[in-house]
Amino acid sequence: MGRVEGKVVLVTGGARGQGRRHAVRLAEEGADIILFDVCGDIEHNSYPLARQHDLDEACREVEKSGHRVVSAAVDVRDRAAVEAALASAVGELGRLDVVVANAGICPLGNELPIGAFVNAFDVDFVGVVNTVHAALQYLSAGASIITVGSVAGLLAEKAGPGGAMGPQGAGGAGYNLAKQFIDRYTMALAGQLAPQSIRANVIHPTNVNTDMLHNEAMYKMFRPDLEHPALDDALLVFPMMQGMPIPYVEPDDISHAVTYLASDESRYVTGVQLKVDAGATLKF
């Protein structure tokens, strides 16, 4: 306990899923938390996104640790809104030490229009850039920036548009491109910030047991042979993604990596592509 004691951490997409688990874990380890989430749906995304009550519940979970939390309903695509909300939160908590740029969507389906590409790319990449760039003015030596990519995005780049891990419609193409850009962006950012002793690293998860994975559009990507696949259908093929014989990892598995990169245990770790993928990249 206490691995990030005294730090203030910003987590985007923090109302549920991976983001909420990261926030709660970091609070349990001693951090005060800033939580942002859009708290509403985004066009073309087939599964419902978090709501205000999810963000409120996430705040209550953080508070159980005895640490402070400030939250706001913010769309990471809106740089001005991110800047304003972050200025208010830092004003209240006094500092900012860690950024976890986690917010993301994955609109899948071959029938989706080009707007799905735009929305996926804008949330998943532009949203990361907006978050990090809004935060830079508050960060100093010892700070840590953690972005969240995707093993699926990396594998799609290797496979090409026609490959087995290629995009599923416009939204899938936008998602994959965004995750590939996050990887390159984080490596470039790490080089720029290293002289200031500010670290930047990217985590690339495989399938994670969250709402982004558990929806019919995602099941359909893994089971295109079925018109309306359910979880049991997808579970038969989910393990094909990983080298290890598991269908997916848990949010806690990613939170362990986030906590390490947020803590001073990784004070000299920067420019790292940390794959929490159960051997997916080895397999493909």
TrEMBL record:
InterPro entries: NAD(P)-bd_dom_sf, SDR_fam, SDR_subfam_1
Domain of life: Bacteria
Keyword Mitochondrion listed: no
One of the record's GO molecular function terms: oxidoreductase activity, acting on NAD(P)H, oxygen as acceptor
A Pfam family matched in the record: adh_short_C2
Keywords from the named record: NAD, Oxidoreductase
Protein family: Belongs to the short-chain dehydrogenases/reductases (SDR) family.
Protein name: Carveol dehydrogenase [Rhodococcus jostii RHA1]
Organism of this sequence: Mycolicibacterium parafortuitum (Mycobacterium parafortuitum)
